[in-house]
Amino acid sequence: MKSAYQSLKEACYEANMQLPQLGLVLFTFGNASIADRSAGVFAIKPSGVPYASLRAEDIVILDFEAQVVEGTKRASSDTKTHAVLYKHWEHIGGIVHTHSTYATAWAQTQLDIPILGTTHADHLTVDIPCAPPMEDAMIQGNYEYETGFQIMNDFARRGYSYEEVEMILVGNHAPFTWGKTVEKAVYNSAVLEEVARMAYLSVTIRPDVPRLKDALIQKHYERKHGSTSYYGQP
Prior knowledge:
Order of helices and strands: HEEEEHEHHEHHEEHH
Mean pLDDT: 97
Helix content: 40-55%
Distance between the termini: 44 Å
Largest sheet: 8 strands, mixed
CATH architecture: 3-Layer(aba) Sandwich
Number of strands: 8
Structural class: alpha+beta
CATH superfamily: Class II aldolase/adducin N-terminal domain
Number of helices: 8
Radius of gyration: 18 Å
Strand content: 5-15%
Strand order of the largest sheet: 4-3-2-1-5-8-7-6
Oligomer: single chain
């Protein structure tokens, strides 16, 4: 019998399969999820299943309390983090978590990724945030659930909007990205990795590399996202 969530499972499968194609994951090092707000559920990759053997029917469906609605496999170990973000950030429709090399390297330094060039400014006007490592009580408790709050708490501390800044590093862990669609979340994951790589190379070539000028930050962001944007086709 065909699942009522078949199209959601297939979309989630396709999003997950883009991650190894883009060089963002190895083996089982990541996951993508997609929400169906009207149904109050989201789909996510099962835990520990290699991408090479992943099938659409393996995808697990859960509600925003991380309770399984449909699926025979154990959901991703990061499922509760996704559930927390979907529950509290109501305008996101997709989430991606990877351990991509350069973004994860920055997370391991516990440093924000500084805005050094116009590629970064095409997507954000701020440094890519790195949330601090989690407190022991959070780690020893409901770890994946608390990871969601670590992300949200860092945004609250900085005064960032999740609709404007769609990516974060979790200190000593790895990146998370999101978007209104899962396609945008995957895109953001690829952009984050490339910007992280560029920033690493820049500070390696010149350790005292200056931050991008404010005028260039605003010009590049506004020409792509502003009210008078002129990037792309009408």
